[in-house]
Design a protein that fits this description.
With about 160 residues, the chain is an alpha+beta fold. Helices cover about 30% and strands about 40% of the residues. The protein has helices at about 25-35, 35-40, 125-155, and strands at about 5-10, 15-20, 45-50, 55-60, 65-80, 80-90, 95-105, 110-115. A hairpin with a 6-residue loop joins strand 3 and strand 4.
């Protein structure tokens, strides 16, 4: 199986990305839940507690130099199949929901990321937020794909 471009869907309700990864489900799960592995493909300057009621805190700076903080809380945790988080930036007046699920394939793993709840966003901002988050999740999923493949090879002694 080749790790190809993520298939994406985007509507007013949310963002859905699906990516087949040339890595075992265990390797992908480790890249999502082991702190050092997670930081190596996402960003070093964040906190993530991959467990039920765990927190995710990511400070970041946008293209205009404005600082933001994204926060999430893990509301479902199902090793090694997936997790769900309630997700929002500090300045938002609404919450969204991010789910990450892993499906074993014969020779790899299908990763699905869904970011839902955008109907609660202010209508004037909704399209831009959806586009920004689709692009952001595509970037992170691409980095996860590459890192998980390398991580799996190291686990297998290659």
């Amino acid at each position: 199986m080749a790790s190809g471009t993520a298939r994406a869907a985007n509507d007013e309700g949310g963002v859905v990305l699906v990516q087949d990864v040339d890595a075992s489900p265990d390797a992908v799960w480790e890249c999502l839940t082991e702190p050092a592995c997670f930081r190596s493909w996402w960003r070093d300057s964040l906190e993530f507690e991959p467990k039920l009621d765990g927190r995710f805190v990511e400070p970041w700076t946008d293209a205009d130099g404005v600082e933001h903080v994204t926060r999430a809380q893990v509301t479902a945790f199902h090793p090694p199949r997936g997790l769900v988080m309630v997700w929002a930036d500090d300045e938002w007046t609404f919450d969204t929901v991010v789910s990450v699920s892993l499906e074993p394939l014969r020779d790899g793993t299908r990763v699905t990321i869904e970011h839902q709840g955008w109907q609660a966003a202010p209508e004037a901002d909704r399209a831009a937020l959806l586009l920004d988050h689709r692009n952001g999740w595509s970037h992170h999923l691409s980095r996860l794909t590459d890192h998980a493949r390398e991580h799996d090879a190291r686990r297998k002694g290659h």
